[in-house]
Amino acid sequence: MSQNVSRLHESLANRFAARGDWRRAYQHLRSALALDPLTGIYNRRHLDVWLLDAADDFAVALVDLDHFKHVNDTFGHLTGDRVLRDVAGLLAAGLPAGGFCARYGGEEFALVLPGAIDAVRTAELARRRVAAHSRVTVSVGVALPGTDPLSRADGLLYAAKGAGRNTVAYADGDTVRFTTGSH
């Protein structure tokens, strides 16, 4: 379905360009370039551009599907693709106003959350939602507002995985704290 959305944007862009409506053609091409064709959510390119222009008052949560290679190896890549689409929808559904979800890499997603208030709670609710509605779990690293949020979130994601997976890790000052589901 998501690949169809990208194709639709490209097709509409071509139609508008053929009619000389370059502004609308540009808008549709820009939309196609900002979306991940598999999941239909924003892609890494959109995230990177957004981060360059963003103020510092946002939190970033990196989300990684636990043992996703096992899903692909056991059930095949078509099932893996369906899992990625489902998880993307679950993650995007629980975001506060002003937040967004982007596919960061293979089985990784980034949640951009406005301000620090409720960022950890939002990440924990996302973890629970995925565990309750799919057969996979996720680990999450949450970087509260500050410099280099992706790097900090990545380090915290690895801490969450090291703590046993199906976990949210965040920094409270110099202390890493965890909220953990059952493994």
Description:
The protein contains seven helices and six strands. Helix 1 (2-18) runs antiparallel to helix 2 and helix 4 (68-75) packs across helix 5 (77-93). The chain is α+β, with helices and mostly antiparallel strands and 183 residues long. The chain folds into two domains: 1-34; 41-180, Reverse transcriptase/Diguanylate cyclase domain (Alpha-Beta Plaits, 2-Layer Sandwich). Strands 2-3-1-4-5-6 form a six-stranded mixed beta sheet, with helices on both faces. The chain starts with a helix and ends with a strand. TPR repeats lie at residues 6-39. InterPro entries: Diguanylate_Cyclase, GGDEF_dom, Nucleotide_cyclase, Rev_trsase/Diguanyl_cyclase, TPR_rpt. Keywords: TPR repeat.
Spell out the key features of this protein.
single chain, alpha+beta, 6 strands, GGDEF domain-containing protein, diguanylate cyclase activity
Secondary structure: elements and pairs:
Blueprint: H1 2-18, H2 22-34, H3 44-53, E1 58-65, H4 68-75, H5 77-93, E2 100-105, E3 108-114, H6 119-133, E4 138-143, H7 149-162, E5 167-172, E6 175-180
Parallel strand pairs: 4-5
Antiparallel strand pairs: 1-3, 1-4, 2-3, 5-6
Helix pairs in contact: 1-2, 4-5
